[in-house]
């Protein structure tokens, strides 16, 4: 069962240029219980609500993984359940020792769930996950915001209502002078980046997500 937080604030770390720690509210969720799951593709006929890409450092590993059910698990070993098994994706890929050490910490990994209020990430592993998302960024700021989600906690990583309200919400990309932090070109506003166990940003030696040993790119179907 997920931690019951009610009105308590849980300290997580949003990595900013000023290296300021923030507190935000989490909402308690129970694993396996989907709150008002949202059917996808009702208007466009599109079946997949997102596609997952697994990366090790700056290289994508394995095939893209389209997601149709409202929930999907991402984990390291096949015996950990149904969903995207990273060990299977990487079975023909020789990873450096640092990547192998990080992958060994993923364990049960995370669950992604499309719900009425957005897309939620539930951290099922014993290590933190780190999230960067356009709906968690400050649209008026140029700083990169990376959220640290401890084991056993969850976070709304993509609010589809909010993305439509952002200045760049009518398109699928934003230009480098609109992007936060370290973006050096067009950024897909329907893309969420999640790093397993290792953070990135101003507080870390890893300045960009492509320096993280194991990370997931969640490519969401554009809002219409």
Automatic annotation (TrEMBL):
Keyword Transcription: yes
GO cellular component, as recorded: heteromeric SMAD protein complex
PANTHER family per the UniProt record, alphabetical: MOTHERS AGAINST DECAPENTAPLEGIC HOMOLOG, SMAD
Upper taxonomic lineage: Eukaryota, Metazoa, Ecdysozoa, Arthropoda, Hexapoda
Keywords on record: Transcription, Transcription regulation
Domain MH2, residue spans: 49-224
GO molecular function: I-SMAD binding; transcription regulator inhibitor activity
Name listed for the protein in its UniProt record: Mothers against decapentaplegic like protein 6
PROSITE patterns cross-referenced by the UniProt entry: MH2 (PS51076)
Pfam families the record matches: MH2
One annotated GO biological process: anatomical structure morphogenesis
Species assigned in the record: Eufriesea mexicana
Domain of life: Eukaryota
InterPro entries the record matches: Dwarfin, SMAD-like_dom_sf, SMAD_dom_Dwarfin-type, SMAD_FHA_dom_sf
CDD domains the UniProt entry points to: MH2_I-SMAD
